[in-house]
Amino acid sequence: MLSGIRVVSFTHFLQGPSATQMLADLGAEVVKIESPAGAFERSWSGPDAYVGDASVFFLLGNRNVQSLSIDLKSEKAKSILLKLIDDADVLIESFRPGALERLGFGYEELSARNPRLVYCSLSGYGSAGPYRDRPGQDLLLQSLSGLAHATGSADSPPTSVGASVIDQHGAVLGAFGILGALLGRERTGKGCKVESNLLNAALDLQIEPISYYLNGFRGERSSTGIGSRYYKAPYGIYRTADGHITVSITALSILSKAFDDDWFTTIAADDEYGRREEINERISKHLAERTTQEWEAHFTEHKVWFAPVNDYEAVVNDAQVLHNNSFLEFDYPGSGPVKVLAHPIRYDGRTPAARTLPPALGEHTESILSTLGLNDSEIDTLAQEGVVHVHNA
C-alpha cells in the first residue's frame, strides 16, 4: 500500500520504532538512521530478554526497515543525510524536542529544501510548553495523565497498566497522522509537520472517563472492585470458587435469570448507578459459589457478557488469537527462532509479511550510500574516517 514512499527514521525506544514499523509493514521504504554505536533498543530489553545476542525489544519493532549507521555530528554525514531527505516523503523522529534542530535537521530547514516532506515529531509532552524538556516515558505518563489514579479499587494505591500502552498508542497516532498528511499532500502538493506525544496519547486513551469528568460527573473508585468509576455493575473481575472471571455490561434482568435471583429485578433503572456497590456485592457472592468453568458454560447459555482472566500462557494458546494469526515467527541470524506480534490489521484478509528481518547495525549503509551516488572508494573512506559504520556480514 505504501510502496514508493520513502521514510527517513530518526527514532529509538518504542514509540518511534513501532510507528515506523507500521509504515514499513505496509511497504514503505524505511531507512533507520543510527549512530555507529547503534540505537538504544539494540542494547536494552526490559527483563534483559535476549535471543542469542539480539534484544527482544529491538526485534519487536524494527522489521522491514533498513539500517544506515552514520555519525550525526559529522558535517560529511549531514550532507549525506540532507541528500537522502531531499528525496524522502516522510521524516519521523523521536529525539528530545530541539535535538534535531541543533543538528541541522529541523522542520523549517528541511521543509524549505523539500516542501513535499511530511515531518513527524514524536515526543513525551510536545515541542513546546513547561514540560517540554522532561523525560517522556510510558509509566511517567500513566501517572501524570490520571490513568494510574483511575485504575484499581478504592482501597488500593494508584495502579499502573501492565504494558506500555501509551507508547504504543502514541505510535499508532503518529502513523495515523503521517498517513493523513500524505493523503493531504496528494491534494495540495505540500507536506506538513505532524506531532504526536505521549501526554496526548495518554489522554486520548481516556476519552470516555475524562469527557464524563469535563461535563460535571465526579465518580469514585469502587470499594467492591468495579473496574471503572463511571460504570454500573457488573463491570469487573470477580472471584469464583477456584479462580476469577470477568463480567461486563449485562442487564440486571439477565443476571436475575442467570443467578436465579429475583432481587436484581427490584432495582429501578434510575437507581442502578447509585446502588452499584450493593449490586456488585451480590454478584460477587453468587460468583463465589461455582468454579470458573461452570460459570463460563452457564453464562454462555444465558448470554451474559464474560471473559476468562487469562495469563500469557493462556493468551498465546487462545483459539481466537491463533485463528487471527496474531504472532509472527522468524529465524534471526545468530539467534534462531524469534516470535513477535504480527501487524495488527488485515487487508483483504491478509496480514502484511516480514519482508526483511530487523537489520544488523549498518546493514544497509553501503547500498543506501550507493543509491545517493557514492562509489565504493568514497564509502570505504567514510567508513575509515568513522563517519559511517558498514556492517560486515
Count of individual domains: 2
Count of separate DSSP helical elements: 17
The best one-word shape is elongated
The top level CATH class name of the largest domain:
Alpha Beta
The low-confidence parts are: none
Percent of residues in helices comes to 25-40%
* The CATH homology group name of the largest domain: Crotonobetainyl-coa:carnitine coa-transferase, domain 1
Tell me, rounded to a whole number, the average pLDDT: 97
The fraction of residues assigned to DSSP E strands is: 15-25%
Oligomer: single chain
CATH names the topology of the largest domain as Rossmann fold
Care to count the β-strands? 14
What is the CA–CA distance across the termini? 31 Å
Give the structure's gist in a few sentences.
By secondary structure, this protein is α/β, with parallel strands linked by helices. The protein is 37% helix and 16% strand. It folds into two domains: 6-205 and 323-389, Crotonobetainyl-coa:carnitine coa-transferase, domain 1 (Rossmann fold); 223-308, formyl-coa transferase, domain 3 (2-Layer Sandwich).
Give the helix/strand layout.
Layout: E1 6-10, H1 15-25, E2 29-34, E3 50-51, E4 54-55, H2 56-59, E5 65-70, H3 75-86, E6 90-93, H4 99-102, H5 107-113, E7 118-123, H6 138-144, H7 147-150, H8 165-188, E8 193-197, H9 198-204, H10 207-214, E9 236-239, E10 244-247, H11 252-259, H12 276-287, H13 292-302, E11 306-308, H14 312-316, H15 319-323, E12 327-332, E13 336-341, H16 365-371, H17 376-384, E14 388-389
Parallel strand pairs: 1-2, 1-6, 2-5, 6-7, 7-8
Antiparallel strand pairs: 3-4, 5-14, 9-10, 10-11, 12-13
Helix pairs in contact: 1-8, 8-9
